[in-house]
Recover the amino acids of this structure.
């Protein structure tokens, strides 16, 4: 989806080579949720509606799928907050619901409640302890590109690496950036996230002008199940031999699609090959 629009965009590479099939048989419109709350940060939620699998889309069509008039509430044991909807061009849906009163704390549970068009959806998540990326190395590739490698610390929970480019506030999953728990350090390559709508232009390297914020997110069990399968679907959707066929799981009630997840997180920033700042919660 983008993350939330994954259900629209994941197509096998050589659809024309397989037998005709009615992919829309049994189609019904459902709510698509991508929501998160991180340690030290407030909740961010994107809402949209799914759509038939094999339809062609213009940008205006996708904009019409975004849900802008829902009531979105986050609850903890101590308090409740109704999130505010606002435009944000950095996110795939261009519209998000955010809060300010409830800030995520490690070990605490948070419930998301979405009310829209006479229906209500719920999900609950817990924030795991954060971890920090270790040593980061930069390798120049030609004159204008560079690659990033980093050390994953030993973690008792699975984790994933997201990144934001050019000072953006939107962190997208890096390609092949989801990892299981491990008792040992691991050296990994950080690949550029795949663009939401411009897959043909994808490259794994970063441009020398890119400022890259790397976020290491620790995941709960469902978060790992969801993002690991999401990663497999992205990779397999480009492979004509093993196309993407698995539906993503969901922890949202009432037949919605998507995820509400708590993350532990830490951030390091790379600018023109130099690590310039670090933030962790």
């Amino acid at each position: 989806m983008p993350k939330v629009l994954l259900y629209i965009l994941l197509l096998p590479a050589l659809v024309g080579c397989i037998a005709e099939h009615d992919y829309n048989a049994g189609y019904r419109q459902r709510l698509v949720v991508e929501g998160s709350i991180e340690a030290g940060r407030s909740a961010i939620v994107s809402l949209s509606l799914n759509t038939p699998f094999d339809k062609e889309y213009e940008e205006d069509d996708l904009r019409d799928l975004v849900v802008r008039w829902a009531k979105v509430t986050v609850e903890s044991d101590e308090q409740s907050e109704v999130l505010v909807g606002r435009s944000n061009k950095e996110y795939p849906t261009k519209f998000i619901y955010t809060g300010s009163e409830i800030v995520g704390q490690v070990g605490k549970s948070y419930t998301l409640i979405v009310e829209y068009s006479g229906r209500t959806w719920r999900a609950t998540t817990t924030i795991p302890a954060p971890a920090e990326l270790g040593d980061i190395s930069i390798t120049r590739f030609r004159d204008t590109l560079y690659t990033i490698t980093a050390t994953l610390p030993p973690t008792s929970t699975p984790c994933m690496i997201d990144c934001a480019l050019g000072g953006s506030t939107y962190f997208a999953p890096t390609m092949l950036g989801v990892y299981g728990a491990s008792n040992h350090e691991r050296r990994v390559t950080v690949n550029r996230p795949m663009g939401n709508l411009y897959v043909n232009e994808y490259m794994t390297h970063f441009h020398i002008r890119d400022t890259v914020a790397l976020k290491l997110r620790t995941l709960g069990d469902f978060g790992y199940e969801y993002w690991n399968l999401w990663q497999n679907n992205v990779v397999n959707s480009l492979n004509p031999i093993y196309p993407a066929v698995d539906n993503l799981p969901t922890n949202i009630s009432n037949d919605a699609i998507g995820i509400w997840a708590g993350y532990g997180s830490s951030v390091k920033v790379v600018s023109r090959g130099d690590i310039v700042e670090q933030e962790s919660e």
Notes: Residues 18 and 258 are 28 Å apart (CA to CA). Residues 29-274 form one domain. The chain has three helices and 17 strands.
